[in-house]
């Protein structure tokens, strides 16, 4: 057993119990990365333990709890709510649970630091339908509040008119390392440029001319491909660090065509577009 890692995790637990005041959906202590250093994700790199404290693992249970599997990623918004992709909602006779503070899915130390919660309620965006890619957003209400710690903290929401085109965002997840490939064991991260929607549309036209980049989408990736989110990363965050050092949630990983292919950047749900709906749900239980 790696006792150095055990000690570091023990320190996390001793430092737990942050009190972050929530007013009108805004967390006064949101977007902090106290354990960061100065994803799977295609051609990303392994993230440090606790580096992305708002990253959530979403698990789906089917047939009355007989089978449980890794379903999606998610993002912690406050002590009661996680945001994810709507297509991650449970199937017939199924349910969802979340794991916070996770890092190594097969590690024997994770039970010391991770926190599990059942999902009490799934609130899917009212205009989402499975056979269309739009409005792919859902909120998961947890059965009990989460106690914040150094490795479990909420992210900040963007302003409703905030534009992130031209900035570089970070994407994290445990999804596939290549199109059709195996999933990652440890949380991975990758940095991707955020595109203007018209630029993203022009790239797609060269390969997939019938794809429409709607205003509620936001794209991130390289024209040459090579780096991207992939299957299993859905619902996870595209985030940007503001000048004040806080991280803000720009997008929710939603869909794309294959993974990391040229002219086919990943498509995310634009969180600023959905902010009014998010606040309406979490402030009116």
TrEMBL record:
Residues 1-25 form the signal peptide. The keyword Signal applies. Residues 41-283 form the Peptidase S1 domain. Keywords: Disulfide bond, Hydrolase, Protease, Serine protease, Signal. GO terms for molecular function: serine-type endopeptidase activity. InterPro entries: Peptidase_S1_PA (IPR009003), Peptidase_S1_PA_chymotrypsin (IPR043504), Peptidase_S1A (IPR001314), Trypsin_dom (IPR001254), TRYPSIN_HIS (IPR018114), TRYPSIN_SER (IPR033116). The lineage of its organism: Eukaryota, Metazoa, Ecdysozoa, Arthropoda, Crustacea. PROSITE patterns: TRYPSIN_DOM, TRYPSIN_HIS, TRYPSIN_SER. It holds the Pfam family Trypsin. It comes from Hyalella azteca. This is Serine protease filzig. GO terms for biological process: proteolysis.
